[in-house]
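Re-running the complex after MR caught last week's input typo. The corrected sequence lines follow. Everything else is unchanged.
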Amino acid sequence: MRNLKEDALKASDKKAALGPDIDLGSYHSDMVPHNYIEDLTSLSETDKKRMIISGVDANERERCGTFVQKDTTVIHSRSKQEGLEIIPIKKALEECDWIHEYYWKLASVDADKYTARAELDLHNGYVIRALPGSKTIYPVQACLYIEKDGLSQHVHNIIIAEEGSELHMITGCATSPHAKRGLHVGISEFYVKKNAKLSFTMIHNWAEEMAVRPRSVGRVEEGGLFLNNYICMRPVKSLQMYPTTHLVGKGATARFYSLLVGSPGSEMDVGGRVFLKAEETRAEIISRAITNSGNIVARGDLIGEVNGVKAHLECKGLILNGGSIHAIPELTGKADGVEMSHEAAVGKIAQEEILYLMSRGLSEDEATSTIVRGFLSVDIPGLPLQLKAEIDRAVEASDKDVL
Amino acid sequence: MLLIEDLKVELAGKEILKHIDLEIPQGETHILFGPNGSGKTSLLMTIMGYPQYKVTHGKIVFKGQDITNLPVNERARLGIGMSYQRPPTIHGVKTSQMVKICAGKGREVDVETLAGKVNFTDFLGRDINDGFSGGEIKRSELLQLMAQDPTLLLFDEPESGVDLENMSLIGTTIGQLLQRDFQIDPVKSQKEKIKERKRMGLIITHTGFILDYITADKGQLLFKGEMTCSSNPREIFRCISEVGYEECVKCAI
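Corrected-run output:
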């Protein structure tokens, strides 16, 4: 433990490799107390509304557990299913010995000042663990909510899918209408064990003056599947993340999907990196970016280290109304017999497609909206229907803003 | 009725249609002949209202309304529909969704049943036109037209890239769309049924195969941007097949 603190201290001013530097001193990070609530429906209507657009339902319909953190404080944490543990991370660090086998074991505490900050001034976060062989029927939902204006929120999350388990998660991050400016630092470590399946869908709904610095690393063992979906379609001032996954066991698979919409004033630098370190591992990174005067950097990096791995990267961008999209797909093959490919395209909506739809009776706006929705509708195999519906809803909701 | 008067059209600054007069009365189907590059597709695209085809002279009147300057979607709403030769792929837009779009708001169509008629149910879940073969494109276009239910149907080479087996299905379907299929009717005589035809058609063909499946009232020959002949479609087709376009248009010069 002392080591972590020391390493973090040394890195407390270390600028990140990517993204604009953020002055941590310009935010406050004191604890903001909130009462624990047993019944989520007692949340204010405003909060409920903000949460639902991020896929977090206060009525817990078709959810098997919920974790909600408001500002710095956990206000709800409960599992409704046997074999599923939901524990605030501070509690886990105090009470569960096993957590130390996971805490900061994938992400580096001294990667940059944001990881350092999450160690030195941890507010809370969740540990969600599916016990061996357990299968969740419905998704678990987690919400990291910022209400206090000017707050720098520091969370650390650990998600563990034990051997043979199946876990589906939806995480919504959102700000209340009162919070205009803030910083969210979120560390996430994903452990997908042998033959386990983890799907993790994250929907972000930030505010125009929010800076967001997630730091995620995952590890997938033999026969495991890690499905990671990221959706950010609302304005954000600065978002930078480059989640990394290590496929370490035979036949492990990672699939990353991201849907981004860059609004005016938004700077997004989002990517995914997968190391294919074991035989027969597979990886796929698919991103769709639309800009409407925002600036988006869409990265993707696949590193094939052993013979016989297969990986594909697909990066498509649509410039609707000014702004920029910079697609940076990267492939590195380090062994004979790797099969890796990428496909990148940045452009505008083809006039031919608009006219085709207009000749079937749609107005120009309807045609454009149909094409944009189509562009954002990516088939994600293996995703439960409830989560598919949440993604569709997010796309639907953003539709009006984009056009 | 579709009426085109002394139409001149430019594409990218170049005059591609020099002088077009055309009249398709209600219930009639005309066949449009012409060598490659004569302007057949351009004429269809101009009738449909594609903005890159600039009308510099003359007018297009449909159902008594001057539509020369109407946008594409308003022409579609008035009842003009087109079967394209090479329609674009739209990723993420499923064929079934496209059929519903064609049916329009507030009109319910049974997508599965319609698709069954052109043997296309297996494609409903696929992105529209994505990787479709020649024959699949035609069936998809017909399916969309069935849902759209226009009164003037424009067909751009409905038989191109279609194998023999599908040709019969496509030909018969076009016949039905244009109300040109014959069935025994206990109440009405065939003559009455022909008289009741509302649908109009304009069909581009190179091979003439379509004439084996449907009857047509007139053939039109387009040559170097001008209508050069209007006559019995089979006669024009025969003339072109036996003596070629150059010889066939001589009578117009």
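None of the earlier attempt is carried over here. Chain A has two domains: 2-350, 351-403. Helices of chain A lie at 2-10, 45-52, 89-95, 113-120, 351-358, 364-376, 385-402.
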